[in-house]
């Protein structure tokens, strides 16, 4: 491929184009396969058409990716992990199908793919594109779209660099008996890598799937890396998907999550996002409602400390009548952490009888912490029920005193109140081992917070 | 157990307690009565350790320790309990979960045997039964949407599970109908032991028909202006507070 002369050497895109060249050299004989052609068109598009955002861009007003882009990234190497490495990341007491990704690459050793394949289709994308008809048709449709039409540069970037992504196809009429746990582990030793997990999940008519994506790391905390992940979820008629994304990346990591959902008639998609780790988090979550009578639930938890920056962008596109969407995001910010919530809801002219509700509540517990919450409702139909609300508050001092008067130390009382604030969401997690793990992860995070937190209360 | 000497306290620069003297021994129940604004709740808050109340003079000794040097949660772990006049609602914290946290914190500090999860539930349920609280209250958020009477019974439940040495009940009876009042009184009576003591703050003599006090004190203008036995409460019921106010003025 050619690099256009016009491109500035310091342009962050140049570095990725360079990196792509290096990557190509490692491919040897595989350069010809269909997946590589798509990767090539993605990098071409990155150099020609789409640029990374700056803060003049309305959707990136509160989140600067300058630090993300100034790094000199490498493609991740293949690394070995052990059963002991992954054990702490599993859900105790949860009987789940496990799919493990290390640095964005599917790892057969720890995955229950064979067992899962008896019920549904699970195919790694790179070989599927060459050998498998269904993968070829379904997956290449999305990959080509991302490579040629996509406006979000991080999705284009993911398309250029993703290797060994996964395609999951639940046939019509299958209610999968157990959740699928997709465990993503970053283990980049001391290299600044760009990790590009890619998942395409199609759930057939009248089928049901629970997917739990978790993002963990085995790096030392100071290690910088970028996880730039793309997950496509397609719900056919009357399908049900419960989709968890629990993120606890390293404290010097950048995490960009692009989740795109398409919903057909009568389908129900529920998303549960929990962000605890990473220095910078950007979640782009969108659901495009492609027919009537769908349900969409977006739930989110964020807990930020130090200089963490956690940005949730959601978008629900109501284009057909009788669809319901319901959003609730809650978070706690201390130290100099910053939170951003931007909830877009589009109700197009034909989308009569739409119900669209959105709420975002944050506790901001120190003077240096801040939250920017922006609902963005664009309503072009008249017979609709839509509402939104955002609040920013502190811990209730009377409640704190009450608990202390019963013997809880200030630290404990604060921790209980923080947990209580998030209960409205954690109690929606109906899979007990998942809820317990999330609650434990929250408590662990609160313990880290307690040393520095609550200057407002002193 | 508790010795209060010449206690003066103020809030936001306003003098509220003006030299309280009170001696409470293990096994005793002291009733504190008096007109509104006399400083009863303030005394309860000062004993419990609420921030914002400044003690300007005097001392409080509890079990041989300087009580005023302890924070509110330290006092609670040392066995002081205040049943609030206005209990707080805490959404998101279930009553059962809250009780477990507090029981653990207090028992651990007092070096009592920790309860297993099973023992804990059995213990909480037994005490809930004593205050006639249905089990489903335990799974509801603490005090949230509870009626006035339910909140007060919840206070007694907390007292029962924490087994305090000194409990201060601030108008736990106000706003209760007679049935709820009996439940509260019955709870207190069942918890009365030789090694604990109660301060019962109340406006009304009727509570003292059920919780028989050893002493009755009248708190007025931040001072204990009269003390007696349970008959003092009857006299107050009959004659009101005016005669006490007049006596107090005469002394000044
Ligand atoms: N937070 C406060 N700030 C200022 N004044 C207060 C405060 N709390 C109580 N007071 C005043 O202190 C006095 C005693 O109040 P309180 O102790 O509640 O009396 P009681 O319980 O006997 O009715 C009253 O005059 C009341 O207005
Ligand atoms: Mg009072």
Instruction: Give the SSE order of chain B as H and E letters.
Output: EEEHEEHEEHHHEHEHEHEEHH
Question: So what's the oligomer here?
Answer: heterodimer
What structural category characterises the helix and strand content of chain A? alpha/beta
Return the average pLDDT of chain B rounded to an integer. 93
- Calculate the terminal CA-CA distance of chain A, rounded to whole Å: 60 Å
Instruction: List low-confidence stretches of chain B.
Output: none
Could you give the order of strands across the largest sheet of chain A? 2-1-5-8-10-12-14-16-18-20
Tell me the total number of β-strands of chain A.
Answer: 20
Give the overall silhouette of chain B.
Answer: globular
Question: How helical, in percent, are the residues of chain B?
Answer: 40-55%
* Terminal Cα span of chain B: 31 Å
Largest sheet, strands/sense/barrel of chain B: 6 strands, mixed
**What fraction strand of chain B?**
25-35%
DSSP summary, beta strand count of chain B: 12
Protein model, in words:
The complex is a heterodimer of chains A (about 450) and B (about 250). Helix content of chain A is about 25%, strand content about 35%. With about 450 residues, chain A is α/β, with parallel strands linked by helices. Chain A has a domain at about 10-290. In chain A, strands 2-1-5-8-10-12-14-16-18-20 form a 10-stranded mixed beta sheet. In chain A, strands 3, 4, 6, 7, 9, 11, 13, 15, 17 and 19 form a 10-stranded mixed beta sheet that branches. In chain A, a hairpin with a 2-residue loop joins strand 1 (about 95-100) and strand 2 (about 105). In chain A, helix 7 crosses helix 8 (about 155-160). The radius of gyration of chain A is 22 Å and the shape is globular. Chain B is of the alpha/beta class and about 250 residues long. Chain B is about 40% helix and about 30% strand. Chain B has 10 helices and 12 strands. In chain B, the strands form 3 sheets. In chain B, strands 6-9-10-3-11-12 form a 6-stranded mixed beta sheet, sandwiched between helices. A 4-stranded antiparallel beta sheet of chain B has the order 2-1-4-5. Chain B has a two-stranded antiparallel sheet with strand order 7-8. Chain B starts with a strand and ends with a helix. The model of chain B has no long low-confidence stretch (mean pLDDT about 95). The structure holds adenosine-5'-diphosphate and magnesium ion (MG). Adenosine-5'-diphosphate (ADP) binds near residues 12, 14, 34, 37 and 41 of chain B. Magnesium ion (MG) binds near residues 40, 41, 85, 170 and 171 of chain B.
